[in-house]
């Protein structure tokens, strides 16, 4: 059951814009349909990307992917590739993509507050010639995510600035259990 709200939720674009306003033309028109030289440079310096996917029923998943150096390889102005590295073998994003190829990517460069947003259609590739360019520590990936870019734009720095995510002085010590302890807890729960 959904948490009960005291007031009716915002349920139209008009209501939303009455609260947040509308974007100035320079911001509203910053979305492009292909990667430019700045985007390529940004991706080349991004070791981390968050990949948003959705299954056929609309259930969402966001998965981080990381590599030393650049996490993605740009093949051309409308195509980029992200290698699949060994991990937990859940393949949640890939399972979603098999049902719904729409993806959203958020490229992050540590220490930098802006992010690069990319949206498009994804395919799961295996054993393509460009896999030779995705080798990390002597390991060639078995699969890669190929994204056909439909939208790309730079996102402002306000979220990282507000959160102080890159400022170590504001990193809190959290009394959370270690990952292994939490995983064991879930395994023992009926």
UniProtKB/TrEMBL annotation:
Q: Give the matching Pfam families.
A: PNPOx_N
Domain Pyridoxamine 5'-phosphate oxidase N-terminal, chain residue ranges per copy? 36-156
InterPro entries noted in UniProt: Pyridox_Oxase_FMN-dep (IPR024029), Pyridox_Oxase_N (IPR011576), Split_barrel_FMN-bd (IPR012349)
Task: Give the top-rank taxon of the lineage listed in the UniProt record for this protein.
Answer: Bacteria
Q: What is this protein called?
A: Pyridoxamine 5'-phosphate oxidase N-terminal domain-containing protein
